[in-house]
What does this fold into?
Amino acid sequence: MTSPLQAKSALTGPSVINMLTATGKVVEGLCIRLGLYAHTFARAVSRMSTRPWHLRMLLQQAEQVGVQSLPVVLLTALFTGMVLALQSYIVFHRFSAESLTGLVVSMSVVRELGPVLVGLMVAGRIGASFAAELGTMRVSEQIDALWTLSTDPVRYLIIPRLIAVTLMMPLLVIVADFVGIYGGYAISVHLLDQNPAVYIENTTQYMELSDFYSGLVKAAFFGLLIGIVGCTEGFNCKGGAEGVGIATTRAVVISCMSILIADYFLTAWMFG
Amino acid sequence: MNQSQLPRISIRGLSKRFGEKVILDGVDLDIMPGRSTTVIGMSGTGKSVLIKCILGILKPDAGEILVDGENWLTLTEHEHLARMRRIGMLFQGAALFDSLPVWENVSFALLRQGVDKKTAKQRAIEVLEWVGLHKIEDLMPSELSGGMAKRVGLARTICHKPDIVFLDEPTTGLDPIMSDVINRLILRLHKDSGTTILSITHDMKSAAMISDQIALLCHGRVHRQIPSDQLDSDQDPMLRQLVEGRAEGPINCSGWGKQMEEAIQR
It folds into this structure.
């Protein structure tokens, strides 16, 4: 049996101190990252209202975020809608409610899966690209070169990326919503022999415009998160190739986790 | 004292540390207008940090940086950026923008100042020809050799006709012939336009060739400042050790030179 003295010494022993030190380091790291993200956002917002606006950079980034992400977003949305239709049909068939498949597919895609899955895809593709691109520019002194050429790196590199990803995410989600719903329709009608007219009627009857808008608000917010995390990690990258690798991995992991966490709070706020 | 006798850049008590490591420990240095000054020193003595502090890329912990009498450390970011129009900087690795063709790299500052594309491209071609590069304006930086990239970097540095040019290791990583080409171009820039130049290097041949004044940076301070024609005759032990490239001597106070010698003997 452990004496009170031994218990006390165990509580204050090296293992407890190590655990507290490790916890402290994690909390400190988290606070530093949050501070960096807030700093990037504040620096960008404080410059947005005044010239120069680098419109060419904005268009380039919008093309990269929007047009070049379309194939991966379309495929993700199509197969998500198809799987969702299959799964929903199997479950609803148990209590003869197959006609609800269309409603469940469309509501799930529009309110939840569209913005979240597109967010995760864009985080993997664009968040990584922002961090790698800016990180490489940082370690090869290109960001310092911009400064010496009388160009504000925040205006030139960060603001166009933030605006592009925030604007393009809702557009990608609109496309993903339609493709996802079509995927569900195709499986339900052509594979599971549901009546197309009933499917469409059930899909549209109970859906409200607010369901659609809420997904778009989420998408814009997720876009902003991806932009801030990717740009901050790249812009503050240290070291050589290893530093760029760390920044890129961190950008993807933190963006994905932020999207899932933010999704819960946004859903609770909008539908709670 | 008339205007031309005032230093173009005056550095007083400049200090910078990274964590516990002291890099600059009260640097005092004057750079006169129209003169070419080179700061020499071993790798890691803070030469690049010194230039980055002057340019506002790094924030020093203490000291003063006066450029034409104006303290640049009290400027806002916006004011600092406006002053950068007078500055040209050649980075060690050239730091060309990968996503832009050569001519846009060279005329980047002009394009940002609102000069139209046609005029900017024409000026870029002129400056590229000045550095001995012909018909490469539409290539991408990835298509250039190291020597070409360095010359494009030099063209970008001078394209907007700056008053003060900073050169960070202009000949590092180049073969001896290309180093000579770069040195001659810098010398020509200095003689032709009277531009004030501050360069940093540990290439003694380059330092002797391109500068009027040489300052030795050691242990975070300017240890010695001499006219460049005295580089071979000055008897300062630290300067001699660096010029002659010896491992043993007063600079290696940490003792690694002695340790190396012992290891070789073993």
Summary: The interface with chain B takes residues 52, 136, 140-142, 144-145, 147-152 of chain A (CB under 8 Å). The mean pLDDT of chain A is 92. The radius of gyration of chain A is 23 Å. Residues 101-139 of chain A form the longest helix (39 residues).
